[in-house]
């Protein structure tokens, strides 16, 4: 055993020829269609609709969905490649795609066939967009503490509550909403009693509250969502009643790999920018790259970048192999890659000196964007807890670890 895996083979990464072909195709699209708009997207806080339509034509929105539901049938590795390449130029654009995944993944895992056939094809084609309404003003990382309620009346549910920090709520045609349908049996099992529902745009009682003005990821909008006696039929319930917490957690297990890829893309962009600059810039009649301190700095940045890349792609590979270890690897990748991005971006700014803080270089935008990735879809300290608890759970199931407290919920 090579703890915490069974052997050395568990640390391998296997790529297919189509993975590299796909990366090159995405890079070409990004450089041609997104890079010229990146500064505009940040300044105007808008992703142009024509750009989204071009992305839809490329099949980007249905990448992870099977052909049966109008998608491309891509794997997790391809999703990571797509997120990394786009985040390298415009992280905000990746949020539009990632938010769609937050809606579609619960349906893929827990939805019935009617729900999948109704909602997934329009998302895959980029004709409709989805959002994930979980976070509430009272509770960020504490999903079990949600206060939004859904009461059953006949064959319908009436939902009341407020959601906060909901990405792309204004763009979304469909939202998956988490609400409490029964009180928890006791304090230890407070996560029980939550249920997931699909709420369509235009449903009476569903409205947007205030727009959240944030420091980064401008172009992706974040809103308060108000549910005032919103009625949905029972057929809009996703999964079994009371399974909402597990649905949310299993969704995050998969989507946080995409957030790690966002951090990786930003880190890659900052490193490339710094590397190019120090070889062009001269000081004291010598290239900056010739100074030992600069060389040390670049190598430190590169070690962080390569470590983040390995963790991110390992999590994706394990997910594609349906290995249970992907859950704790995903949490490791999420907090490590997003924190590595912040370090690399900060050092890239230092290497640029005064030029580094100007908007033209683009590093200050990356610094603003990177900080948010450390918070959403599970704040990084929460990811440390999740990684540990998932690891303990897996080792127990393997019989490697005996009983005792693991801090599990």
From TrEMBL:
InterPro entries: Acyl-CoA_Oxase/DH_mid-dom, Acyl-CoA_Oxase/DH_mid-dom_sf, AcylCo_DH-like_C, AcylCo_DH/oxidase_C, AcylCoA_DH/ox_N, AcylCoA_DH/ox_N_sf, AcylCoA_DH/oxidase_NM_dom_sf. Belongs to the acyl-CoA dehydrogenase family. Gene3D superfamilies: Acyl-CoA dehydrogenase/oxidase, N-terminal domain (1.10.540.10), Butyryl-CoA Dehydrogenase, subunit A, domain 2 (2.40.110.10), Butyryl-CoA Dehydrogenase, subunit A, domain 3 (1.20.140.10). It comes from Thermocladium modestius. PANTHER family: ACYL-COA DEHYDROGENASE (PTHR43884), ISOVALERYL-COA DEHYDROGENASE, MITOCHONDRIAL-RELATED (PTHR43884:SF12). GO terms for molecular function: acyl-CoA dehydrogenase activity; flavin adenine dinucleotide binding. Residues 242-391 form the Acyl-CoA dehydrogenase/oxidase C-terminal domain. Residues 17-127 form the Acyl-CoA dehydrogenase/oxidase N-terminal domain. Keywords: FAD, Flavoprotein, Oxidoreductase. This is Acyl-CoA dehydrogenase. SUPFAM superfamilies: Acyl-CoA dehydrogenase C-terminal domain-like, Acyl-CoA dehydrogenase NM domain-like. Its cofactor is FAD. Residues 131-230 form the Acyl-CoA oxidase/dehydrogenase middle domain.
